[in-house]
Specification:
heterodimer, A: 259 residues, alpha/beta, six-stranded mixed β-sheet, three-stranded antiparallel β-sheet, 9 strands, 41% helix, B: 283 residues, mainly alpha, 70% helix
Chain lengths: 259, 283
């Protein structure tokens, strides 16, 4: 039987609606200890989200920009603490977000492998062993001793995925990273994710590429304004999402016509 | 692979820590992430002087140059100083430099690392610990400049040299404590950073950098206040340790100085752990 690896229970996250001008020190101080007279205006990015993911699941997250997909992944990674509700997980987690995050531009690709590996919680000896396979998988042997700032965004993403895949976390969270790789790399990373699935790993992928979601995920959720609105097979979820997108596209046109 | 933990049960992610347990939590994170901390420290040191031809010599040249300036200033203002004055100022400059960098680095540790904080999770105090750790190593290296001066003044190494690491450790704790306590507030309001820059500039003159506790001793009216300056004890420990004699300070000032640094660190750690996850959302 397969264990639950991620379990969210009524998780909500509020963000302060930060204005460009900042209040005075006293007010921020008071608000921090909870004595603030006026409540700060809040934006709720996740509304009581509950989710259970098991070993061997590859879950796709679809939804429009700003729907809460990245926030959800960051809660699971531990970046944000839920304001309400409880988030639990088991095992090591690795979040791949943005392009080559955790990477330092002035260090070489090789040095960055060690740095990123250390960020993901691995010691030097293990990385010494994995280094060659990471470099080979990334397919950038030629540039590995160049400073990272000279890399293209695709190359950074390849390096990041290669390290993350090599250290074999129990939970891998991917936030729109695979899309930047070229076709060849995308094929290899897809194969690697399927491998993780068979090894009872858990993968969450947020992506706008519905083809990718349908190809590698066994489950999917549609996130909308901080709610999980649909949960089911990738095909069901993608169809619903496409249908909504179509409706949305036709609305402004109709509105403009009537005015 | 010994590193892999097999999933057996679910653990709450990023569970809140009670206020008083903050320092203990920080200690636990320090042990768990020591490899990462060491990796970051190496990176800091390697990057510090990258693309400069003099490299690490800068960490010796900079305090030497500054001391020369202060020495000249002293001669102009106060006349002929004691012969060992050059050594005392040099030590003062190095320790003060370490302290003010520790405060400002820790204070801005969250705001400077916004990108990393939002994208990967690891305990955020690690930024402060690694910055202060690497500055500690560089400052200890800078103190090697004192060796030729010790030879020149015929100061033999004594067991009092053991006061040097103690003084540096207390300086680090004091700097970390102040910085950690203010780091979260600095995310909400960047004025904190500017305010502390001013405080550190002013504090320079109120601290025994360009002068020593013994020199101030002749002015009985201001001496007690200067001895209550929390950086006085750590700085004097390093200075007197290298100079090879005990502290010329009453015992209660010593106890005060040690406990001030330690308590500031513990309080700073507790405040940081309490507010850290709240302010991350404001980054």
């Amino acid at each position: 039987m397969s264990h639950t690896t991620i379990h969210l229970e009524g998780v909500s996250i509020d963000f302060p609606r930060t204005k460009v001008t900042v209040g005075t020190i006293e007010r921020s101080l008071l608000r921090m200890i909870g004595v603030g007279s006026r409540r700060e205006p809040m934006f709720t990015a996740l509304h009581e989200v509950s989710l259970e993911v098991k070993e061997g699941d590859v879950l796709g997250l679809v939804g429009r920009n700003g729907a809460g997909k990245s926030t959800l992944l960051r809660v699971i990674a531990g970046v944000y603490r839920p304001d309400r509700g409880v988030a639990r997980r088991s095992g090591r987690v690795c979040l791949l977000a943005g392009l080559g995050v955790g990477f330092i531009g002035n260090l070489s690709g090789r040095e960055n492998i060690y740095l990123y590996g250390a960020i993901l919680g691995h010691r030097r000896q293990l990385l010494d062993k994995l280094r060659d396979s990471i470099i080979e998988f990334s397919g950038i042997e030629e540039f590995i001793d160049q400073p990272l700032r000279t890399y293209s965004s695709g190359m950074k993403a390849r390096l990041g995925f290669s390290v993350a895949a090599a250290v074999r976390p129990e939970i891998l969270l991917i936030d729109e990273v695979l899309a930047v790789g070229d076709a060849d790399f995308r094929e290899r990373s897809t194969a690697r994710i399927k491998e993780m699935m068979n090894e009872a790993g858990t993968v969450l992928i947020a992506s706008h590429s519905l083809g990718l979601i349908q190809e590698i995920c066994n489950r999917a959720i549609l996130v909308e304004k901080g709610h999980i609105v649909v949960s089911g097979t990738p095909d069901e979820v993608c169809t619903t999402y496409m249908g909504q997108e179509k409706k949305l596209k036709s609305v402004p046109a109709a509105g403009a016509g009537s005015r | 692979m010994s590193d892999v933990v097999h999933p057996t049960h679910l653990v709450e992610i990023n569970a809140p820590v009670p206020f008083l347990a903050g320092p203990r939590e920080m200690w636990r994170n320090f042990r768990e992430y020591r490899h990462l901390i060491w990796n970051f420290i190496q990176r800091d040191i390697r990057l510090k002087y990258r693309d400069s031809s003099l490299g690490y010599f800068w960490s010796l040249l900079e305090p030497m140059g500054l001391s020369a300036v202060y020495w000249v200033l002293f001669v102009i203002l106060a006349g002929k100083p004691q012969p060992k004055f050059a050594l005392w100022v040099l030590i003062g400059v190095i320790v003060w430099g370490f302290f003010s960098q520790a405060v400002s680095d820790t204070l801005t540790s969250l705001t400077r690392n916004e990108g990393l904080i939002k994208q990967v999770y690891f305990p955020r105090e690690i930024f402060a610990l690694t910055n202060v750790g690497s500055k500690l190593i560089l400052s200890a290296l800078s103190l090697l400049v004192c060796i030729p001066l010790m030879v020149h003044f015929r100061i033999a190494p004594t067991p009092y040299l053991l006061m040097v690491p103690v003084g540096l450790a207390l300086t680090a704790m004091l700097g970390l404590g102040i910085g950690l306590a203010m780091a979260c507030l600095n995310v909400v309001n960047r004025d904190v950073d500017y305010f502390f820059r001013f405080v550190m500039r002013a504090g320079f003159f109120l601290s025994p950098v360009m002068w020593t506790v013994e020199q101030a001793g002749s002015r009985k009216s201001i001496l007690p206040y200067l001895l209550y300056n929390p950086i006085t004890l750590p700085l004097t420990l390093v200075r007197d340790g290298i100079d090879g004699h005990g502290l010329h300070m009453a015992r209660h000032y010593i106890i005060y100085g040690v406990s001030f640094s330690v308590l500031t660190f513990l309080l700073g750690a507790a405040i940081f752990k309490r507010f850290e996850s709240q302010v991350v959302k404001k980054l």
